[in-house]
Amino acid sequence: MRCYKSTCLRLKILSNRLNFWKSPQKVGGAVDIMAPEVDVPTLGAWFQEADLNSTVIIEDVEKLIIQREHKEDPFSRLLHDQSDQNEPRYNFHSYGSYPQMVSWMRALSRKYPEIVQFISVGRTHEGRSIDGLEIGGGNRRKRVFWIDGGIHAREWAAPHTALYFIHQLTSKYGRDPNITNYVNEITWVIVPSLNPDGYEFTRSSTNPNVRLWRKNRAPSTCVRDQWGRNRCCKGVDLNRNFDFHFKETGSSDDPCSEIYQGKTPFSEPESRAVRDAILSNRYRGRIDGFITLHTYSQIWIHPYGHRRDSYPGDIQDLYQVGKRATNALSKLYGTKYIVGSGADTLYPASGGSEDWAKQTGAIKYVYLLELRPDERNWDGFILDENQLIPTASETWAGVKVVADAIIQRSKNKVLRRKTVSATVRRAHVTTRCTRAKSGSKSKSRCARPSPGS
């Protein structure tokens, strides 16, 4: 159901108890809400009483899920089952399982050991390893580009897009001069699914309450409601669990809310995994790019998201690189993206990974990407599989612009160091003077030795 807001006051009636696909944004904008069929008449009457316009845009969400994402695909299974060390293969025309993702990444690390290293950044509540690849590593002086996806379980296109980036970097290395340069100049750390527990849970059923699950699968937390009843619910919104203005805005203390931030910052093993990797001896101080992939709305988001009109000191640079990236992205299929902070373009929300990465991680180019479809599209998270490769390929075009900025920044740093070093050497060149007598007067004769003398 899509509801159109008309006044700020009426925003307050949109309760955390509803399943939001798109959260409340600006006055006059649309909010996408999923509700059980039996509740639709009640909600419709509720909205009408509050003078809110609403339209049913998906009559049967489960039917759409089956049509879009659960097609019989024997080739997909064959592709995975028969893949081996010599020919790593992955079917990018469909949504894969987390074990399929991991199997493919392991195969790539065996196929290309000179540029690919299989990594694990942590473990989940259910014991799954949070796996990824380091591409182009080995040289600790190289700058690092961190990319992750799938922090929200239901956003299936995000892990797929991250996997596509891996495919581009590995399959074209040594063949495409631009890709070869990206791998030679940058260490890429790509973790396709930060929330594999949640992702696999969403794959376990076509029930919309399962498929559209957002949080991780943390054990149940219980609270007493206003009537004194115990309410217990699983999961934490991982993108509200980072230590950046924790619990301030756009999150909830209600464990049954989709935006429950958890009891404390970094209470979850998945968010701790990101923190520990970025602050590790291996990567700390080397990361110049951070992109976290989400869906949906087609927005290229820069920090900060906790409050409107709040930006880091280098906002002009962040914004300009974002604009160049979205311009490159749109050249493929004409897809239009908005560039701005999350608070300005969507809604204020604190505790996000991108804001923490910018402030605490001290990373230069930090973005959260809301991929296809745009906010006018009605299918939201249930993106048709025929949109997967266009989504991934256009996003890759934008990501390459950020990679170019990282490389250029690194070169500029090297140039500045050389300039400073040369200046220092010149400053230490001394002037050697001797005095020679000529008659009754002394004359000075000075000679400037070369730096090597």
From TrEMBL:
Pfam families xrefs: Peptidase_M14, Propep_M14
Active site: E370 (proton donor/acceptor)
Keyword vocabulary terms for this entry: Carboxypeptidase, Disulfide bond, Hydrolase, Metal-binding, Metalloprotease, Protease, Signal, Zinc
GO molecular function: metallocarboxypeptidase activity; zinc ion binding
Ranges of Basic residues composition bias in the record: 431-446
Any one biological process term the GO annotation gives: proteolysis
InterPro entries found in the cross-reference section: M14A-like_propep (IPR036990), M14A_act_pep (IPR003146), Peptidase_M14 (IPR000834)
GO cellular component: extracellular space
Residue segments, region Disordered: 431-453
Residue ranges constituting the Peptidase M14 domain according to the UniProt record: 94-406
Cofactor: Zn(2+)
Gene3D superfamilies on file: Metallocarboxypeptidase-like (3.30.70.340), Zn peptidases (3.40.630.10)
Classification via PANTHER family: PROTEASE FAMILY M14 CARBOXYPEPTIDASE A,B, SHKT DOMAIN-CONTAINING PROTEIN
Protein family (similarity comment): Belongs to the peptidase M14 family.
Protein name: Peptidase M14 domain-containing protein
